Amino acid sequence: MAINYNIPEYDVLRDPQRCIACRVCERQCANEVHSFDPDSGTMKSDESKCVNCHRCVALCPTHALKIVKNPDTFRLNAYWGQNDISEIYRQAETGGMLLSSMGNPKPYPIYWDKILINASQVTNPSIDPLREPMETRTFLGKKPGAIERNPDGSIKTDSLPPQLKLEVPILFSAMSYGSISYNAHQSLARAAQELGTYYNTGEGGLHEDFYKYGPNTIVQVASGRFGVHHDYLEAGAAIEIKIGQGAKPGIGGHLTGAKITDAVSRTRMIPKGTDAISPAPHHDIYSIEDLRQLVYSLKEATEYKKPIIVKIAAVHNVAAIASGIARSGADIIAIDGFRGGTGAAPTRIRDNVGIPIELALAAVDERLRQEQIRSNVSLIVAGGIRNSADVVKAIALGADAVYIATPALIALGCHLCRTCQIGKCNWGIATQRPDLVKRLNPDIGYKRLMNLVSAWQHEIMEMMGGMGINSIEAMRGNRLMLRGVGLNEKELEILGIKHAGE
Ligand code: SF4
Ligand code: SF4
């Protein structure tokens, strides 16, 4: 038998005083860690398969289980870490690329945590959001250069470019049906409808049951063109052309055949059981002029009634790229930072390619302002938003709204075990296995999403009130409200903010 050089990452600790051998853990673990030993009448564990998703811990009726990091390590070495060594063992064994999911977990700087928010004191008093009006509604889309009026003085609304109306500046980011489950999609769609915001189909097409959520749906057109047809384009409130994704800039996507069930195959319009491979580039886009053709083809196909979003990954020359996109006819640019999640990505790409969204956002907003084309487009930022303070900082840095995905999945029960790519999500989110999918109840899921976004909305209003600002519009790009801590001159310059104390 070949030796497995890797040691299990986690220990499964079972308290024999508490365990009643009810076998709940065995039924709950899709990774087959737990089993019953009929000879001894006790439970056993194969911890080498455990991904620390906490499903068994949460459902054990006697709280007999704990999953802990295995304290055993390879010989300590200041240069070759545990992970470096075990990844080499894995590759030496399989000869394959390493795959991962969710976002970049490496300890790069988190700029959100080096930015602080202002608050009013004596002059310009703060606003109490419980007693005074506070506007979190915002509109995404191209803004007119000047206000046009009818002969009676009223504003001409029919000449406005198409807009997305958001009651709160938070949208659910693209997650395809196929990478996440039917019940996860339904939870997102219902929550978006109730909250007055939008969810995004990702590149997986739109399941026939979800057409009714069309007014709150952004439909995506990606390089694989899965599930794209006229009714699909017509169904959405906006169309997003996906050029890049923060978790894997520069490469395509791959959904394994195991996840292409009957319903996923129908929705994507590909044969059941075949791998769904999206090419890295769009094969008809090699320039801004080509992009412009696709933007206008989609506008033409939907009679100029829907805003077109172009989504890109945050990469080195993102400001110049965004400048080109703003001139392509797109109405909204979505920028996805390197902390953005995914259902599957090559580990080396996820962990080493792209740049932080904070720097990308500040650079893009500044460039578009300098070129006087900022009102040509709205900016949505994604990839690393963790809480309402991150939202406020993003808007003050220049975003019109944010996309969230990982926080939405965590609200649905995701425990960030980061093994979505194997399709055995014990929480019913990143899986197509019917027995696992039904573990996520969309009636509960959509309420948890609503609670999360409503809680953030209240917190955003508190922070805005503290700054003496009563609308998202007044906060957008208001970098005077931000100060940096522990940042060098170059970082402060790119972020366009002063250091704390200045
Ligand atoms: S994979 Fe999840 S359910 Fe299975 S043993 Fe580990 S923590 Fe428990
Ligand atoms: S979605 Fe599921 S598989 Fe993916 S990280 Fe979350 S709990 Fe793990």
From TrEMBL:
What the entry lists under CDD domains is as follows:
GltS_FMN (cd02808)
List ligand-binding residues for [4Fe-4S] cluster 1: C19, C22, C25, C60
Which EC numbers characterise this protein's activity in its record? 1.4.1.13
Domain of life (superkingdom): Bacteria
Q: Where does [4Fe-4S] cluster 2 bind?
A: C29, C50, C53, C56
Pfam assignment, any one: Glu_synthase
Positions in coiled-coil regions: none
**Gene Ontology MF term list:** 4 iron, 4 sulfur cluster binding; glutamate synthase (NADPH) activity; isomerase activity; metal ion binding
Gene Ontology BP terms: glutamate biosynthetic process
User: Taking every annotated instance into account, which residue ranges of this chain make up the domain 4Fe-4S ferredoxin-type?
Assistant: 10-39, 41-70
Which reaction does this chain catalyze?
A: 2 L-glutamate + NADP(+) = L-glutamine + 2-oxoglutarate + NADPH + H(+)
Record InterPro entries: 4Fe4S_Fe-S-bd (IPR017896), 4Fe4S_Fe_S_CS (IPR017900), Aldolase_TIM (IPR013785), GltB (IPR024188), GltB_archl_type (IPR043578), Glu_synthdom (IPR002932)
Q: Which UniProt keywords apply?
A: 4Fe-4S, Amino-acid biosynthesis, Glutamate biosynthesis, Iron, Iron-sulfur, Isomerase, Metal-binding, Oxidoreductase
Similarity field: Belongs to the glutamate synthase family.
The protein here is known as: glutamate synthase (NADPH)
Q: Which species is listed as the source?
A: Caproicibacter fermentans
